[in-house]
Amino acid sequence: MKIRTALAGLALAALATVGLAPAASSAPAPDSDVGIDIIDGSFATNAPWAARLFIDGQQFCTATIISPTYILSAEHCVTGLVPSQITFRIGSLDQFNGGELATAVSYATNTEADISVIQIDHPVATTYARLGVASDVKVGQIVQVYGWGATCTGQPEINCQSQFLKVANVKVTSVKCSDYKGGIAICANRVDGIPAGGDSGGPMFTSTGRQVGVASTSDRHVRTGYANVTAYRDWIFANSGV
After folding, report:
1. Does residue 1 register a pLDDT over 80?
2. What is the number of other CB atoms lying within 10 angstroms of the CB of residue 122?
3. Residue 39 pLDDT grade (very low, low, confident, very high; cuts 50, 70, 90)
4. What pLDDT, on the 0 to 100 scale, is given for residue 98?
5. Is residue 78 within 8 Å of residue 110, measured between CB atoms?
6. What SS3 class is residue 76?
7. Is residue 53 scored above 70 in pLDDT?
8. Sign of CA dihedral 41, 47, 50, 56
9. According to the model, what pLDDT value does residue 7 have?
10. How far, in Å, CA of 34 to CA of 163, rounded?
11. What are phi and psi of 239, to 5 degrees?
């Protein structure tokens, strides 16, 4: 599968990245029959900004809450949908339990990049993902990616979605590559894990504690691409006030 493959759909051959906030740390696997892989990586222990995105009740993508009523994810996770089809579990490491549930009321998608901003039906009080600027990320940097996506290869990725939020380290190879839509992206290579289907829309965090990417593509082995949040801050602000 090419790096340009989108990470989005569980039933689709789409990519997803796991954004791992620098504030989060890893821990031993919880008791579960779910495999431990993002693919590989480890389990996150603190991610109050994390949001699991469901379509018609089915696990689909990863996202982050960036203000009381706005969530950031990938364009390919939501495009073509009626907002009411999109729901979230926010602030829980367990995609099936805890946290707070919310439903989308509207969304905006970027015309150039694989980024979407989704408005939810009520304010959610939590710790929101802080968005980065260009100086927060550079080539050679080790960053973290988070997601609930597939932990396996060689079978349908919907069969091996992680119940618990995973995190992995990747190394930045470019801050000006291309995402799934051809927008400006941050590309990175595997260190101890790699995103897969269902991780789409998830965050990439740097050691500054800021989100700099949104999961867009992955080859499930070595390379992954995240829409470069720092290049689209004006658009995000225009559509969310953040």
Report:
1. no
2. 11
3. low
4. 97
5. no
6. helix
7. yes
8. positive
9. 54
10. 7
11. -105, -5
Closest of 53, 94, 103, 57 to residue 214, by C-alpha: 53
- Cα gap 84→191, rounded to integer Å: 38
DSSP-assigned letter for residue 78: H
> What letter represents residue 166's amino acid?
K
pTM for the whole structure: 0.84
Q: Are 42 and 194 in contact (CB under 8 A)?
A: no
Note the pLDDT of residue 38. Answer: 53
Q: Taking residues 140-162, what's their average pLDDT?
A: 86
Say if residue 15's pLDDT is above 60: no
199 touches 44 (CB < 8 A): no
DSSP β-bridge partners for residue 6: 217
Cα–Cα distance between 28 and 137 in angstroms, integer? 28
Token pair 């839509």 is found at: 181
CB distance 70 to 124 below 8 Å? no
Is there a contact between 229 and 178 (Cβ–Cβ < 8 Å)?
no
**196 and 161 in contact (C-beta within 8 Å)?**
no
Cα atoms found within 13 Å of the Cα of residue 23, Cβ hemisphere only: 13
Q: Report the candidate in 214, 233, 236, 66 with the shortest Cα–Cα distance to residue 146.
A: 214
